[in-house]
Amino acid sequence: MKCPNKKSDVINIADYPFSVLRFLQNVVFLYKNRAYNMQYNISPPDKIHQAITLPPSKSISNRLLILNALSYSAETIENLSDCEDTQVIIDAFASESNVFDVKGAGTAMRFLTAFLAAMEGEWIIKGNARMHERPIYPLVDTLIALGAEIKYLEKEGYPPLKINGKHLEGGEVYISGNMSSQFISALLMIAPKMEKGLTIHLENEVISKPYIRLTLGLMEEYGVKAKWEGQDISVKNQEYVPKKIRVEADWSAASYWYSFAALLPESEITLYGLQKKSLQGDANLVNLFADLGVTTDFIENGIVIRKTRKTIKKFFHDFVNEPDLAQTFVVTCCLLNTTFMFSGVQTLKIKETDRIEALKTELQKLGYTIKSDDARIMEWDGERCFPAPGVAIASYNDHRMAMSFTPACIPLGSITIADPHVVSKSYPDFWADIKSAGFIIKEIED
Question: pTM for this structure?
C-alpha cells in the first residue's frame, strides 16, 4: 500500500488508496479546529521578504483527475493538489462503494455527476447541507436529454442524486451561457465518450470563458480536439490518449499575496510555481493588481511582486471571467480606500455561500458600506459606518472569505478569523505560509 505524503510531488491515481496517514491528519485537524470553534487572531509583520511555493491549481487538478480516468491512464499526475476539493475526487476513484460524499466541493459534485452518468453502474452522489441547497438541475436536465438516467433523491433540482450510468448517445443541446461554467466543463469532458459526440449551443452571455478554455486546453493535452466557433462548441466521438502531466501553481492562491504586497509597500514576495503562459483565467490578476500599484516580474518557475506604483482612485472591472478573484479585490480596495464598481459578480451568490451578502455583512463590521444591484454589481463609493469593535470575521464555510479578509490585519493591526480550517478547501498550507512570512497567529477557542 502506497501512503502518499502531503508534500509528495507525484501521485498515481491508479494505486491511490485512502491513506491512514491522511485519516489521522484529518482527525487531528478537525479536533483542533472544529470541535472547539477555533478562531485565529492574526497580526501582520512590518514588511514581507519571503519566497512561497504556492499550492497546485485546484481547477487544473480536478479536471485532470477526470481526464486521467476517462483516458484509463496509469500515468502519474505530478504536483496534484492536496486540497479538500481534490481529495474528495481522489477518494471517489479509490472507493469500493457506489455512494460518494463530495461534502462542500461544488466542482466535484458537477464533474463526478457527469462522469458517473457515462460510467456503467448504479451510483449515489451527495454532499453537505449547503451542497444540497446548490441547484444542479441545469446539468442534470442536459445529461438526461443526452440519454442519462438520473433521479433526485430529495428536493427536485438539487443533490443528492441517484445515477444509473451507461453509454450516452450524445447529440446537440442548448445551454444558457450565464450558468456556472462547471456545468459546461463537466459535459465537455465526457463528450468524446458519447456515441454521436456533443455540440453545445450556448445561449445568452457566456460567463467564466477562461474556465471553459481551461477545460478544452487540458482535453487537448490528452489528444481530444474540440471546435469553439461563436456560441457553439463541438466535440466529436474520439479517444483520450494517456499522458504524464504536471499541475501548475494556483493563480487564485497568488491573489492573497498580491493583496499583502498592495498593503505592505516595502515588501518583496517571490511566488514559485506560476507560469507566464497559463491556461488559468485568474492569471489576469497580474494586470488587475497593477492598477493597485503591484508590479510583477516573471522569473524561472515563478514571479516576484512588489508595490512600486500609486493606486488608482476608483477601480472599474467586470469579473465575469475571474469570479474567484472578486472577494480579494473587494476587500483590498476597501482597505486601500479605493472606491470601486465591479460587475459580473452574479455567480458569487451560488458559491459556497452567498458571497455578495457575506462580503457586505463582514465589511460592515470593519466600517465599510457596500452596495449591490440585482446581484450583478457591487459598489463602494467611500461610504463608511461605525466599525464593530472586537468582532470576528465569519468565514461562512467559505475558504475565500477567510483568506480574502486576512490582509485586513495590516491596516487594522490585527484581525480575528472564525473557522480558519476552511482554507483546506483550496490552500491547506495558507496559515503556515503566512506565518513563515512573519505574520503572528494566535489560536482562540470560542
Answer: 0.83
pLDDT at 344: 86
**94 in Cβ contact with 131 (< 8 Å):** no
Domains and CATH numbers, the chain: 36-55+250-445 (3.65.10.10), 58-245 (3.65.10.10)
CA-nearest of 165, 158, 155, 153 to 190 is 165
As beta bridge partners, residue 444 has 39
Buried b (16+ CB within 10 A) or exposed e, 25-60: eeeeeeeebeeeebbbebebbebbebebebbbbbbb
Residue 46 designated active-site: no
Interatomic CA distance for residues 189 and 64, integer angstroms = 10
Q: Return d(Cα 344, Cα 321) in angstroms, integer.
A: 8
pLDDT digits (tens, 9 = 90+) for 180-222: 889 999 999 999 999 999 999 999 888 878 999 999 999 999 9
Nearest CA to 87 out of 158, 180, 16 is that of 16
d(CA 323, CA 327): 8
- Report which of 312, 316, 291 is spatially closest to residue 378, judged by C-alpha positions: 316
Residue type, 66: I
Q: CA angle at residue 249 from 246 to 253, to 5 degrees?
A: 155
Q: Which of 101, 324, 398, 419 is catalytic?
A: 324
Give exposure, 93-112, as e/b (b: 16+ Cβ within 10 Å).
beeeeeebbbbbbbbbbbbb
* Percent composition of the chain: helix, strand, coil (DSSP 3-state, to 5): 40, 25, 40
Number of alpha carbons in the 13 Å side-chain half-sphere of residue 305: 30
- Amino acid 39 reads Q
Cis? peptide before 160, omega within 30° of 0: yes
Question: What is the residue type of 263?
Answer: L
- Within its chain, how far is the Cα of 371 from the centroid? 25
Angle at 34 between CA 79 and CA 132, to 5 degrees: 75
Whole-number Å distance between alpha carbons of 254 and 56 = 11
For 159: left if phi > 0, alpha if psi spans -120 to 50, otherwise beta; the answer is: beta
Q: How far apart are alpha carbons 273 and 9 in whole angstroms?
A: 12
pLDDT class for 374, splitting at 50, 70, 90? low
